[in-house]
């Protein structure tokens, strides 16, 4: 019975695609990550030592990173397969992305559909602002993906239940002797056995 619960739990865990707070260190890594999800929210920002020398700037960066990590754990975004990516543009491998995506200032929150830039919001945004930005640009698309995720989760749960009820087990042996004789099937296809005996 314990194994049955494990099967159900595993099915529920696998069915949810987890949104992650991903940090990239090069433009090539960013390009690859953008191809791994239907859409992504990328935070472009500068966390260089020069920026962090200023306490207000350092606090703003820390708060923004914490907010971004927290958002990535929200269940609706996980179900919608929204990918959260942090791109620290002060890294040598990311200098070119500002020019490529025509970003005028930092920090910049950018929504991508695949590898295509969809929308941009600038500034040290609050959580509500970011949620509104996502809602405004991805609401309909997210609803469709969440619907598909719910249907897939229900399907996998039903399959897990069927597997749990159909797992074979053996009774016996009864009586004396080494022989086992198959008698038939019990319940939802689970075989059971009567013990044999010497003739």
Short key terms for the protein model shown above:
single chain, 199 residues, alpha/beta, Glutaredoxin, 2 domains, 5-stranded mixed sheet, two-stranded antiparallel sheet, 7 helices, 47% helix, disordered N terminus
Low-confidence stretches: 1-18, 174-199
**Structural classification:** alpha/beta
- Tally of strands: 7
Average pLDDT number: 77
What are the secondary-structure elements, in order, as H or E? HEHEHHHEHEEHEE
Kindly report the spatial arrangement of strands forming the biggest sheet: 1-3-2-4-5
* First-residue to last-residue Cα separation: 36 Å
Helix content: 40-55%
Largest sheet: 5 strands, mixed
Top CATH class of the largest domain: Alpha Beta
Q: Whole-number radius of gyration?
A: 27 Å
What's the architecture of the largest domain, going by CATH? 3-Layer(aba) Sandwich
Task: Tell me the β content.
Answer: 15-25%
CATH fold naming of the largest domain:
Glutaredoxin
Going by CATH, what is the homologous superfamily of the largest domain? Glutaredoxin
- Supply the number of helical segments: 7
> Shape from CA axes?
elongated
Count of structural domains: 2
Describe the overall structure:
The protein folds into two domains: 2-159, Glutaredoxin; 168-199, no CATH class. 47% of the residues lie in helices and 22% in strands. It has seven helices and seven strands, in the order αβαβαααβαββαββ. It has helices at residues 2-15, 27-34, 49-52, 55-72, 75-79, 95-100, 127-165, and strands at residues 21-24, 39-45, 82-88, 108-113, 116-122, 180-186, 190-195. The strands form two sheets. It has a five-stranded mixed β-sheet with strand order 1-3-2-4-5, sandwiched between helices. A two-stranded antiparallel sheet has the order 6-7. Helix 1 (2-15) packs antiparallel against helix 7 (127-165).
